[in-house]
Amino acid sequence: DREHAHGQGSFFGRRKGHKLRAYQADLIETLLPHRQPFLFLGHARVESTSSISGCAIWATHHSILQGHFPSNPVVPGACLVEAGAQLAGLLISWRNQRETRREAGMGVLAGIQRAQFVRQLLADEPLLISSKVRQLNPTAFIADCRGIHSDQPVFEATILIGIRRAAELTCHPA
Fold it and tell me: 20 to 30 A Cα–Cα from 154, which one of 2, 90, 100, 172?
């Protein structure tokens, strides 16, 4: 097992035939299309087939923070929600890993039903995120995401993740 050999992940048990895993950023990239500077997750742990937790941190020098309150960099709320969406997408991709990406499609943030921002998250503050995901139909999922820092709530959001096939994700020049 690649990740076990490199000490980058471990098995936490099995449920419904799936191996539960911990992922570092390089392994997250095997399941998500995101790359720096827009891959926000540093690591994640699949808790069950419907639950995942992870961590994101935006360093002071992160390009997204350069123009957002530059004297006191605050992580934009849209990035907090996106980190939750990436975490939910990682769980969905993990669940679909037996299918090829072409067959399974890719999870995309399709809507925000509710979002609440409780406190600011400053640069270099780690955000612990949890997401509980439930499937609505073969191409739609609802994710309840929550982010905390130092045991204090930062945000909560309920988001819609839609599955798009590879052909639907390509850009066509106008």
Answer: 90
Q: What is the 3-state secondary structure (H, E, C) of 92-120?
A: HHHHCCCCCHHHHCEEEEEEEEEEEECCC
Q: Which residues of the chain have pLDDT under 70?
A: 1-20, 98-104, 166-174
Tell me the pTM.
0.81
- Would you state the structure tokens that stand for residue 108, as one six-digit string? 């995309």
How far is Cα 26 from Cα 6, in angstroms, rounded to an integer? 12
For residue 58, give the DSSP letter. Answer: -
Rounded to 5 degrees, φ, ψ at 50 are: -125, 5
Tell me which residue of 138, 144, 174, 149 sits closest to 159, measured CA to CA: 144
Is residue 31 within 8 A of residue 93, CB to CB? The reply is yes
